[in-house]
Design goal:
Number of helices: 21
CATH class of the largest domain: Alpha Beta
Number of domains: 4
Strand content: 5-15%
CATH architecture of the largest domain: 3-Layer(aba) Sandwich
Bound molecules: adenosine-5'-triphosphate
CATH superfamily of the largest domain: P-loop containing nucleotide triphosphate hydrolases
Shape: elongated
Number of strands: 16
Distance between the termini: 90 Å
Largest sheet: 5 strands, parallel
CATH topology of the largest domain: Rossmann fold
Radius of gyration: 34 Å
Helix content: 40-55%
């Protein structure tokens, strides 16, 4: 048999026909369970999952049709083929209406029976895939490319290539915003299950009481609010990849349940006794130091070893030599230009929020920029001010406590070439000088300076802020600089 075996449930009170069918299908390599009545079938279906059920229509006690009805009511996931000795069009129609996928008359050639079982299983798989896709479509984000050519990022890319083809769990560690989810997507895309679902869950974003049902699913009525049965993300990701973000936040009570799935793929929905099997590749991420969490008793050691088989540590952005410029060029729309001073400020900043923060700063700058030119004015003050040594006043050459006075120049010409002045100081003197020459006419001054009038207001606000922190777009706020 080249096809994968079918997990089959045969329900028929006629012992001879049931046994011979079961024997034949087992010989063909399928995984067959046979029972003689509907009640036994139901209790079995509560504990185990099957691909296909073959139900005899006429059985003493609960009939095949009633069994089908119960399956429909309880939303049990199985494709059913009805079998009958006295097949009529009416009975076939009512069985199909109740959700049977096929209807066969007895006696049925065993080869035909197997053929119909394959068709039913195919339908079962398609339905499952459809469900997975619907759930996954709302969850996936478009895959992002890993931008950067620093040695540390190249090392990460190498590791991704090596770990992707295995089925082992991967643990991705790194500060917030370093790209752990992007790396998880890259691993999935380079894996053997790239065409299968990629489902993500963030343990920190879910209320603690919902994490279990989100991950493992729940049975209808298992808790207040469980109005319908729901498969968990493990089931939705079956055959594919589950990305568990912020795994360090997984409540200790759920850690054994996760360990179990990692060990043998088995799980139970909340409020359900039936054990299910899934085949899911786990990629976990954390910005906590999981080893410390283990040492502090917050994270199970056995689970840590299970997920830490292959691990990737993402370096923070400040340690990726040259990547800031590459990321700026990638995320800054083509129509924009960034000047050297702004670029320098971005390169000097330590980026505690890493790439996510850099992207936000670039987006903000494109909104604030006059025309399409990004200057330090368009960056947040903490970035522009970061690392700016307040000129000679803090010169290392001077003994601590020595009072140093930087002379207040009257003209920017006097300041040029003198490295004790900050760019801002020169700009301030120059702007005020031009404004003075224009007799306070801001439109004229802006024209002379080659900048937009709004930008002049902002500059004046900023210069003014050195003495007066109040800032506004209002012209009157600028008057005090004059
Ligand atoms: N190397 C990279 N190239 C391009 N974009 C990147 C890169 N790394 C991260 N990003 C982008 O930065 C943002 C943050 O990345 P991501 O969500 O993967 O970070 P994270 O480490 O998972 O953060 P958190 O720990 O907060 O969940 C996303 O918009 C992502 O697309």
């Amino acid at each position: 048999m080249t096809e994968t075996p079918i997990k089959l449930l045969l329900v028929d009170d006629e012992e001879d026909s049931r046994r011979s069918s079961a024997k034949w299908m087992t010989r063909k390599g399928h995984d067959v369970t046979d029972v003689s009545n509907a009640a036994d079938a139901l209790s079995l279906l509560e504990r185990e999952s099957f691909d296909v059920g073959i139900f005899d229509m006429n059985m003493p006690g609960m009939s095949g049709l009633e069994l089908l009805q119960r399956i429909h009511q309880d939303k049990i996931d199985i494709e059913v083929i009805m079998l009958t000795g006295q097949g009529t069009v009416e009975t076939a129609v009512s069985a199909m209406k109740m959700g049977a996928c096929d209807f066969l008359s007895k006696p049925c050639a065993l080869g035909d029976l197997e053929h119909h079982c394959f068709r039913a299983r195919e339908r079962h798989e398609l339905k499952k895939e459809n469900k997975q896709l619907k759930a996954v479509i709302s969850r996936v984000r478009p895959a992002a490319k890993l931008i950067g050519e620093s040695q540390s990022l190249l090392d990460v890319s190498n590791l991704i290539r090596k770990v992707a083809p295995t089925t082992k769990p991967v643990l991705i560690q790194g500060e917030s915003g370093t790209g752990k989810e992007v790396v998880a997507q890259a691993i999935q895309q380079a894996s053997r299950v790239a065409d299968k679902p990629f489902v993500t869950v963030n343990c920190a974003a879910l209320p603690e009481n919902l994490v279990e049902s989100e991950l493992f699913g729940h049975q209808k009525g298992s808790f207040t609010g469980a109005t319908a049965e729901k498969p968990g993300l493990f089931e939705i990701a079956d055959g594919g990849t589950l990305f568990i973000d912020e795994i360090g936040e997984l409540p200790p009570s759920l850690q054994p349940k996760l360990l179990r799935v990692l060990e043998d793929g088995s799980l139970r929905r909340v409020g359900c006794h039936r054990q299910r099997k899934v085949k899911v590749r786990i990629i976990a991420a954390t910005n906590r130091d999981l080893q410390t969490e283990v040492d502090n008793g917050n994270f199970r050691e056995d689970l840590f070893y299970r997920i830490n088989v292959l691990s990737i540590t993402l370096p923070p952005l400040r340690e990726r030599e040259g990547d800031i410029d590459r990321l700026i060029d990638h995320f800054l729309p083509r129509s924009y230009h960034i000047d050297d001073a702004a670029r320098e400020a971005l390169n000097a900043y330590p980026w505690p929020g890493n790439i996510r923060q850099l992207i936000n700063v670039i987006e903000r700058a494109t909104i604030l920029a006059d025309e399409f030119d990004i200057t330090p004015d368009d960056l947040p003050a903490e970035i522009v001010d970061y690392g700016q040594v307040p000129s000679k006043t803090t010169s290392e050459a001077l003994p601590v406590g020595t009072p140093v006075v930087v002379p207040e120049p009257s003209h920017p010409r006097d300041m040029l070439g003198d490295t004790q002045y900050k760019l801002d100081d020169i700009a301030r003197v120059h702007v005020l000088e031009v404004l003075e020459k224009e007799k306070g006419n801001k439109a004229g001054a802006a024209r002379k300076l080659g900048i937009h009038r709004r930008k002049l207001y902002r500059l004046l606000d900023r210069f003014n802020g050195k003495a007066d922190t109040e800032s506004s777009d209002d012209e009157s706020a600028c008057e005090s600089v004059l």
